[in-house]
Amino acid sequence: QVQLVESGGGLVQPGGSLRLSCAASGFTLAYYAIGWFRQAPGKEREGVSCISTSDLSIKYKDSVKGRFSVFRDNTKNTVYLQMNSLKPEDTAVYYCATDLISSDMGDTWDREGAYRYWGQGTQVTVSS
């Protein structure tokens, strides 16, 4: 059974850091591109980052460039999203996703409809 489980969310002060994990089961994560999305209250889900299988193609939403980094540990079947210099506007539920087809999502990396399998999400709250 294909499953993605996010963890690592929590409450952090502005300027702080969090590392989110996306652990996969039921498939080998190393073979597929993995996307990170977030959804704030009252807003649509938006793409945050995406990493290809080769790690040669890594995408970031403009507002997180230089603050967030995505990487994978294939030995743990896990993808991580390191979030530094967090801002209140980063507050959202964060999700990881895959289409279980593509090694590289290309220009569709930030399109919610391009992904088929989603985790349950982890809440990130940035507040003083």
Kindly describe this structure:
There is one protein chain. The protein is mostly beta strands. The protein is built from no helices and eleven strands. The chain has strands spanning 3-7, 10-12, 18-25, 34-39, 46-51, 58-60, 68-73, 78-83, 92-98, 117-118, 122-126. Strands 2, 4, 5, 6, 9, 10 and 11 form a seven-stranded mixed β-sheet that branches. A four-stranded antiparallel β-sheet has the order 1-3-8-7, with no helix packed on it. A hairpin with a 4-residue loop joins strand 7 and strand 8 (78-83).
Assembly context of the chains: single chain
Our estimate of the beta-strand percent is 35-45%
**Overall helicity:** under 10%
Distance between the termini: 40 Å
Structural class: mainly beta
Poorly predicted runs are none
Brief synopsis:
By secondary structure, this protein is mostly beta strands. The protein has strands at residues 3-7, 10-12, 18-25, 34-39, 46-51, 58-60, 68-73, 78-83, 92-98, 117-118, 122-126. It is globular.
List key phrases describing it.
128 residues; mainly beta; four-stranded antiparallel sheet; seven-stranded mixed sheet
Question: How is the secondary structure organized here?
Answer:
Blueprint: E1 3-7, E2 10-12, E3 18-25, E4 34-39, E5 46-51, E6 58-60, E7 68-73, E8 78-83, E9 92-98, E10 117-118, E11 122-126
Parallel strand pairs: 2-11
Antiparallel strand pairs: 1-3, 3-8, 4-5, 4-9, 5-6, 7-8, 9-10, 9-11
